[in-house]
C-alpha cells in the first residue's frame, strides 16, 4: 500500500512534464531542447545528492563492470522514453500524450516474460521466465478504458497528423520506460540505492543528450530563457522528484511482478493531474460527463490494484509460514 501511495505522489510530479512540454511547444520551443535540457539539468543535482550520501564511488564501480549494458539500458529507459514524449508534445495536446502514455501500465506487464526468476524444484534451482500477471492485466485494462473515455470527447477535434505523430512515439516510450527500468534493477541487483541508479542511468545516457543538443543548436539555435526556466522546473519536479519516488516504489517491489504491475499502474493518475493542470494553466475546458466516467474507472482500477497487492502480501506471508513449518 505504501508503494502505491508513493507511485501516485510520483504521478503528481510527473504530470508537470506533459503540461510544461506542451506549454514550451506552444511558445515555439524545440522538443530537442525540452528533452535534453531536463537530463542535463539533472546531472549536477544528482551528483551533489550522491556525494552528500558518500556513495559516488560505488556508482562508478558498478558502471565500469558493465559499461555497454549501462549505456544500452539507460538509452532504452531514458532516451527512448523521454525523447519520443517531447516530440509527441509538438503535435498533440498534453492530455493526448498523457493519456496515450498510460499504455505503459500494460507495457510493464507484457515485458515480464523477458525476465527470469529462480525457483527451487526437486531437481534443484532452475530459472523460469516470469509469467504475465493476468489479474493485474485485467485491472489495468479497466484503467485504460477509463483513460480512453477521458480522451474521447476531445479526440473528435484532432487532425490525422496529431493522432499519428502524437500517439506512435508515445507507444514506443510506453514500452521503453518499464523495460529499461526493470533491466537496470536486474543489472544492479539491489547493490545501488535509487539515487545512485538514477545518477548512473543519467550519466550513461548523457552522450545521447549531448548529441541531441548539438543537433538542436544547428537546427533551431540556443534555447530561449523561457524554455530554460520551464525545462529546469521539469528537471526538478519530474526528473529528480518524480523519477526518484517512482524508482523507490518499484525497487521495493521488484521481486514481485504482481506488485510491480500495480505500482506501474499508479501512473494512470497522471491523466487526472494533467487535465486539471491544463485547465488551470493553459485554459483547457474541464472534462464532461463521459470524461468523469473515465476518471471514476481510473480510481476504481487503482483501488482494485491496492486490494490485489494486499492479497498478494497475505499470500506471501502464508507461503512463508508454510515453508518454515516444512523445514
Give me some keywords for this one.
about 325 residues, mainly alpha, two-stranded antiparallel ribbon, 13 helices
Q: From the helix content, strand content and strand pairing, which structural class follows? A: mainly alpha
Task: Identify the strand order in the major beta sheet.
Answer: 1-2
Rg for CA atoms:
20 Å
Largest beta-sheet details: 2 strands, antiparallel
Number of helices: 13
Low-confidence stretches: 322-327
Cα shape: globular
Order of helices and strands: HHHHHHEEHHHHHHH
- Percentage of residues in strands: under 5%
Distance between the termini: 30 Å
Description of the structure:
The protein is mainly α. It has one domain. The protein is about 80% helix and about 5% strand. Strands 1-2 form a two-stranded antiparallel sheet. β1 and β2 form a beta hairpin. α2 crosses α4 and α4 runs antiparallel to α8.
Q: How would you briefly describe this protein structure?
A:
This protein is mainly alpha-helical.
Secondary structure layout plus pairing:
Layout: H1 2-26, H2 31-52, H3 56-65, H4 67-89, H5 94-101, H6 104-110, E1 116-121, E2 124-129, H7 134-155, H8 160-188, H9 194-220, H10 225-252, H11 257-265, H12 270-281, H13 289-326
Amino acid at each position: 500500500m505504501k508503494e502505491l501511495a508513493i507511485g501516485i505522489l510520483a504521478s503528481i510530479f510527473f504530470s508537470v512534464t506533459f503540461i510544461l512540454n506542451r506549454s514550451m511547444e506552444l511558445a515555439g520551443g524545440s522538443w530537442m531542447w525540452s528533452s535534453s535540457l531536463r537530463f542535463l539539468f539533472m546531472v549536477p543535482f544528482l551528483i551533489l545528492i550522491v556525494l552528500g550520501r558518500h556513495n559516488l564511488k560505488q556508482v562508478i564501480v558498478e558502471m565500469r563492470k558493465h559499461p555497454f549494458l549501462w549505456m544500452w539500458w539507460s538509452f532504452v529507459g531514458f532516451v527512448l522514453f523521454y525523447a519520443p514524449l517531447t516530440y509527441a508534445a509538438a503535435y498533440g495536446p498534453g492530455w493526448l500524450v498523457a493519456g496515450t502514455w498510460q499504455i505503459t501500465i500494460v507495457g510493464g506487464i507484457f515485458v515480464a516474460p523477458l525476465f527470469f526468476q529462480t525457483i527451487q524444484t526437486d531437481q534443484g534451482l532452475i530459472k523460469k521466465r516470469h509469467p504475465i500477471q493476468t489479474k493485474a492485466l485485467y485491472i489495468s485494462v479497466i484503467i485504460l478504458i477509463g483513460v480512453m473515455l477521458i480522451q474521447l470527447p476531445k479526440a473528435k477535434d484532432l487532425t490525422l497528423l496529431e493522432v499519428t505523430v502524437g500517439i506512435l512515439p508515445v507507444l514506443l516510450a510506453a514500452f521503453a520506460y518499464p523495460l529499461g527500468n526493470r533491466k537496470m534493477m536486474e543489472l544492479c541487483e539491489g547493490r545501488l540505492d535509487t539515487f545512485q541508479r538514477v545518477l548512473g542511468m543519467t550519466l550513461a545516457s548523457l552522450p545521447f543528450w549531448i548529441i541531441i543538443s548539438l543537433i538542436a543548436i544547428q537546427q533551431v539555435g540556443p534555447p530561449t530563457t523561457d524554455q530554460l526556466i520551464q525545462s529546469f522546473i521539469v528537471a526538478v519536479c519530474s526528473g529528480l522528484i518524480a523519477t526518484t519516488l517512482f524508482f523507490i516504489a518499484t525497487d521495493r517491489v521488484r521481486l514481485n511482478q504482481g506488485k510491480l504491475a500495480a505500482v506501474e499502474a499508479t501512473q494512470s493518475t497522471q491523466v487526472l493531474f494533467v487535465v486539471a493542470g491544463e485547465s488551470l494553466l493553459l485554459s483547457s475546458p474541464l472534462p464532461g460527463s463521459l470524461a468523469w466516467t473515465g476518471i471514476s474507472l481510473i480510481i476504481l482500477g487503482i483501488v482494485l490494484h491496492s486490494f490485489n497487492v494486499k492479497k498478494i502480501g497475505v499470500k506471501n506471508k502464508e507461503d512463508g509460514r508454510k515453508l518454515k513449518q516444512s523445514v
